[in-house]
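Known limitations

Structure tokens in this collection are predictions and should be treated as such. Users comparing against experimental data should check residue numbering before alignment. To illustrate the layout, the record for HTH hxlR-type domain-containing protein is reproduced below. The input appears on top and the generated tokens appear beneath it.
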Amino acid sequence: MGLLDRVQYASDPDRYEYRLTAAGRELFGAIVVLMRWGDTHLAGPEGPPIVLTHRTCGEVTHPRLTCDVCGEEITIHSVTPSRGPGFLEADPAPPEDPARSERNS
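Generated tokens:
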């Protein structure tokens, strides 16, 4: 499961292009969030090097994370992390070796 597929689009000579896989396309949100962070913290006085224009309204957009249930913006202060269904408990500490305890006494 990679992020890109190599697809031949011409031969003689062979030429290839790289297309995003489904996993690659799912990274779009993470990439936009990182891009926005860079725009805030690293862009010069000229502004960001790349902007995103929303095709529906034609305006430059500033994407944000929102809750898929209520639509409210998600911030560091509006979410609480908790264990999900895939959470695995850590292995318990191995029992102490009685011989080792006696040596350390």
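For this record: The chain has three helices and four strands. The CA atoms of residues 90 and 99 lie 26 Å apart. Please report discrepancies through the issue tracker.
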